[in-house]
Task: inverse folding
């Protein structure tokens, strides 16, 4: 029977901020941006949560609910640094660590009983070690599956440990609302409610066949999840097993909708630059570029273009995405959100260019140097001149560039 | 307007206009063909505003005049008629009536007034044998870029250099250049123009309809158009705007190694081996080692294939990745039985040329390798 830990840092962004400014302790703190800004809450302190502020809530709504809260832009580079520290601590306990995002991770502690004792004492040791090294609190969920462990850590918060012994998973899940199951969002919750399903126990009581007929393969995964099994998409994977991304994208929501071509194009340049940087980090070349446009009225378009060769070079991808933009943007229509992305990955460069062979070779070398500088000194140290004006404050993001434990595959 | 025309003549000339007629119905008149009868012939004109073609068919003209009829409908119908005279009459109401033996048909047309005026051909700059022009097109057209956004690469560069003709096409991955002496050159002419791919295709069709390969095509250009006149047929193309890349810069100056190979053997080997290449990238490897050239390809987990060709080569072993399609395009276009493969290393452009005795023209095909 495997022993899976889910370690979730308590109010991670806020806690890191408190380390740098202890005066924030015990106060209502919201990380994500200023109160008047567009955008959403990235993290809220437990004090702020009492007022109904939670992550993904629009900042302006948060300001209404909790006017006395301290709003912070956040410091992505600090979170990244601490995320690396967290990762290092976790690695002391198991070689199989998978950071699910910047502040949570799965650990496989199967077969470590002789080293760390029972799961509870291992969790206790981990707790203490985490606090000593990083100064941060975390919550630990333990069970025989990733899914149950994730639910556990949520129930254990803040700063707690919860262990569900093998065999008791279904019993533990039964009284919880279906929404607590990872993968069940608003829409699924609503659809389940329509057939009278509110709690996980109700779901577990249904025939698999019925769920499959009603919800397709998702229904089957749901049936498995309700019984505490790792089922469906990501949960089927082994911890730490390498999985290559299928797509890479970045998007930006403007503080104020804009139809200013130069702002839009420079923003697109900056977004694409970030995409290209991650592409190179993974050692991939992409064949298809994607553009996402959201107008003021929230109508959203995505458009894609397949290149005649795979590329990981900033300028080639930028030219292609900019062209998509020029062809698809309704001139003068204010834009709320822009996104740039790539798919269709190949591991080798493939066809070389005849007309721009020298230029591309120089670009490869220059970008390799730039990436090294960014690795050492941060993402903002170097960027394309045309993207400078479009540079946006890096938004606090749970899956930023350079997430520990998700390093690119070693090059062969 | 009223005239009668031989069915075979009419079908042949209408066929030539089919590639030019606008398929999309955004501007309805462009789906029509302009028919003008006068003297002892009818003139048929089609255009999609990028290309225009004007052909002539001998006819017995009862009353002169002009009208337009949907081109595709006219051809599809006339093609099915028996070999005989077709009487065509277009009335003031723009309806055309066709009578051929016991067949009678009426087709709704449109007024000729809305049909665009084609530019007048200026004085010819040069005369080029139809067969030679078609051969130059066939040797380069496959290298034109399919990427619409690279519009200066959506055609070939035609250069008149003294008494020499040069045609160059590239898609940024490979480049085909052909240079031939013009036997019909009357004097030194220097000019260049970007010829769109579609015009090149129409010229190939025109050549196929011309039994006399030595027949001279008169070539002329005005500010925006290129003109090709062969006898009574005239093809007009809008020029591609923009600058063709400085291709001479990327032509390899010297190669380290040259290997001569039988065109047919190499083509057949690549065709077979390429069955085991990735469908999208079409990547194969060509390895030159002591007295052999090895063509190799593999798709992980599903198969691999290799062929070995004897060659005269004593240099170091060099392995280069190529897009099989690119190599095949050249091997299918070149007429000579032997080709010379020029190369340096896995990163540098490779080059193929026709080889052997009697090659009296310059044909260079430069291909960038793939990194596999």
Result:
């Amino acid at each position: 029977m495997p022993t899976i830990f889910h370690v979730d840092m308590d109010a991670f962004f806020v806690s890191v901020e408190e380390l740098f400014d202890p005066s924030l302790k015990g106060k209502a703190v919201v990380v994500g941006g200023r109160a008047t800004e567009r955008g959403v809450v990235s993290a809220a302190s437990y004090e702020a949560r009492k007022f109904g502020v939670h992550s993904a809530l629009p900042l302006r709504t948060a300001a209404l609910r909790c006017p006395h809260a301290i709003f912070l832009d956040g410091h992505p580079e600090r979170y990244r640094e601490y995320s690396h520290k967290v990762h290092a601590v976790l690695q002391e306990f198991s070689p199989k660590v998978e950071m699910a995002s910047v502040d949570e991770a799965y650990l496989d502690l199967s077969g470590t009983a002789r080293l760390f004792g029972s799961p509870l004492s291992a969790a206790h040791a981990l707790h203490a070690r985490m606090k000593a090294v990083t100064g941060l609190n975390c919550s630990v969920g333990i069970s025989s599956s990733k899914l149950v462990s994730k639910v556990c850590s949520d129930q254990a918060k803040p700063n707690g440990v919860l262990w569900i012994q093998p065999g008791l998973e279904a019993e533990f899940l039964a009284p919880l609302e279906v929404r607590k199951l990872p993968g069940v969002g608003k829409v699924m919750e609503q659809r389940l409610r329509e057939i009278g399903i509110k709690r996980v126990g109700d779901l577990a009581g249904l025939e698999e066949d019925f769920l499959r007929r009603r919800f397709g393969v998702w229904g089957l995964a749901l049936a498995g999840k309700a019984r505490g099994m790792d089922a469906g998409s990501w949960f089927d994977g082994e911890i730490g097993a390498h999985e290559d991304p299928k797509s890479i994208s970045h998007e930006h929501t403007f503080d104020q909708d804009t139809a200013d071509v130069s702002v839009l194009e420079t923003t697109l340049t900056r977004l694409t630059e970030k995409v290209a940087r991650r592409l190179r980090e993974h050692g991939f070349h992409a064949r298809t570029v994607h553009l996402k446009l959201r107008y003021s009225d929230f109508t959203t378009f995505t458009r894609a273009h397949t290149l005649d060769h795979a590329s990981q070079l900033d300028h080639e991808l930028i030219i292609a995405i900019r062209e998509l933009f020029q062809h698809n943007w309704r001139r003068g229509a204010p834009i709320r959100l822009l996104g740039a992305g790539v798919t269709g990955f190949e591991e080798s460069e493939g066809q070389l260019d005849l007309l721009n062979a020298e230029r591309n070779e120089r670009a490869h070398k220059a970008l390799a140097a730039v990436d090294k500088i960014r690795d050492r000194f941060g993402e903002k140290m170097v960027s394309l001149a045309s993207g400078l004006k479009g540079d946006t404050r890096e938004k606090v993001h749970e899956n930023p560039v350079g997430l520990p434990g998700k390093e690119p595959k070693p090059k062969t | 307007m009223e005239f009668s025309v031989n069915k075979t003549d009419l079908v042949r000339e209408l066929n030539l206009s089919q590639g030019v007629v606008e398929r999309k119905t955004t501007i309805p008149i462009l789906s029509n063909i302009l028919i003008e009868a006068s003297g002892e012939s009818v003139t048929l004109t089609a255009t999609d505003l990028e290309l225009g073609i004007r052909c002539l068919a001998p006819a017995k003209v009862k009353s002169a005049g002009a009208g337009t009829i949907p081109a595709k409908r006219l051809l599809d119908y006339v093609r099915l008629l028996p070999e005989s005279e077709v009487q065509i009459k277009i009335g003031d109401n723009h309806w055309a009536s066709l009578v051929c033996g016991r067949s009678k048909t009426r087709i709704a047309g449109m007024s000729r007034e809305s049909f665009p005026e084609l530019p007048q051909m200026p004085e010819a700059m040069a005369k080029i044998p139809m067969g030679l022009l078609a051969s130059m097109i066939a040797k380069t057209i496959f290298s034109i870029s399919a990427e619409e956004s690279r519009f200066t690469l959506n055609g070939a560069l035609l250069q008149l250099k003294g008494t020499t003709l040069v045609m160059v096409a590239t898609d940024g991955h490979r480049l085909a250049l052909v240079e031939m002496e013009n036997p019909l050159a009357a004097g030194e002419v220097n000019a260049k123009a970007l010829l769109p791919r579609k015009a090149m295709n129409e010229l190939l069709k025109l050549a196929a309809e011309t039994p006399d390969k030595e027949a001279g095509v008169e070539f002329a250009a005005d500010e925006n158009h290129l003109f090709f006149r062969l006898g009574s047929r005239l093809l007009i193309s809008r020029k591609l705007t923009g600058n063709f890349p400085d291709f001479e810069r990327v032509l390899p100056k010297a190669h380290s190694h040259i290997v001569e190979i039988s065109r047919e053997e190499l083509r057949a080997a690549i065709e077979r081996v390429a069955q085991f290449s990735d469908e999208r990238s079409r990547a194969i490897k060509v390895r030159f080692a002591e007295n052999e050239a090895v063509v190799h390809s593999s798709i992980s987990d599903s198969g691999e294939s290799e062929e070995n060709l004897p060659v005269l080569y004593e240099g170091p072993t060099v392995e280069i990745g190529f897009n099989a399609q690119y190599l095949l395009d050249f091997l299918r276009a070149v007429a000579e039985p032997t080709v010379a493969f020029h190369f340096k290393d896995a990163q540098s452009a490779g080059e193929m040329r026709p080889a052997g005795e009697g090659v009296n023209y310059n044909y260079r095909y430069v291909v960038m390798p793939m990194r596999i």
